[in-house]
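Let us practice reading a record.
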Amino acid sequence: MMRWAFRYHRSGYGGLRLTADEFFALPNDGHRYELLDGVVIMSPSPTPRHQTVALEIAAQLYLHTRAGDRGVVLTETDVRLPPRTAGGQDIVYRPEICYLNSAKVAQIDSRIRTIPDLVVEVISPESRNYDTFTKRADYERSGVSEYWIIDPVDRAFTFLRLIGGRYVEAPYSEVEYASEVVSGFKLSLPPIRAVFTMFR
């Protein structure tokens, strides 16, 4: 199967059916891919506003971890999730941001081999259903403790916490959201709202 994938490298990998290990071995062709139920799908290229929102959130998290949290913040990194059913096909997502606590840092090498504590997705019109329904269900099932969905187009925030195996929307104020999995961290919302209006 891998030889077949490499043969069609120039036309992209979208639509190929691969295992997670085969997916990880694909050469980088400059596009952003994920693996959904064993099928390679291409994600849309992020817009400047999308990227700037993600950078603002990642910067806030990064500065917090460097100040003593000792967890790790990663951007655009492949996260392998368990199949939906026994014997099911592999799932690999590449969220904008993920956070792993200090106890999990030692398990990170060339790949993330454990479930992140926090995942952040900055959605686009093309990925809205994918991020808010498909990924939400997979992150919930896999045990991601917090899932933040940031919508630059609608200028909206959704903060989800895993309680009793189900996601529940968490409250936030006009100025901040206090995370329960990133100890002591409060996401400042005004700088993110400023980015919402920075681009047309």
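A brief commentary: The longest helix spans residues 48-69.
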